[in-house]
Amino acid sequence: MALEDGSMYGPLGDGWLAMPPEGTPKARGSHTAVSTGSRMIIWGGTSPNCGSGGGVCSDGAAYDPATDTWAPLRTEGAPSARSEHMGLWTGNALFISGEAWGRRLGCPLSDGALWVP
């Protein structure tokens, strides 16, 4: 079961803080989550609320702790829907590659993409 909420850990106060529900991306699992140093970005994953590709997501969102807000990522030029993939923050872009969903269906994905904020 995937939930549409989240919490962030505050090391200075040694406690958990609820994240805002407004703008939260669809509940999902098996997604990528990376930190840019100023935002947390999630991409892809699986959810019964995602697309027609067997519940595999082809979208993402960025959380900005300075403003306590979520914003959807652009999907133009995005890689195809995927889960159990790899995401890497390069210092100025999010690199997405690999996956497990297509291999299970006998059609492994051969694309990837860079998301540049």
Encode the helix/strand succession as letters: EEEEEEEEHE
Helix content: under 10%
Spatial separation of the terminal alpha carbons = 30 Å
Shape: globular
Short description:
The protein has one helix and nine strands.
Describe the structure.
By secondary structure, the protein is mainly beta. It has one domain. The chain contains 1 helix and 9 strands, in the order ββββββββαβ. It has a 4-stranded antiparallel beta sheet with strand order 3-4-5-6, with no helix packed on it. Strand 3 and strand 4 form a beta hairpin. The chain is globular and about 50 Å long.
What attributes does this structure have?
single chain; 117 residues; mainly beta; four-stranded antiparallel sheet; 1 helix; 3% helix; 31% strand; globular
Topology, pairings included?
Blueprint lengths: L6 E4 L4 E4 L13 E4 L4 E4 L16 E5 L4 E4 L13 E4 L4 E4 L3 H4 L8 E3 L2
Antiparallel strand pairs: 1-2, 3-4, 4-5, 5-6, 7-8, 8-9
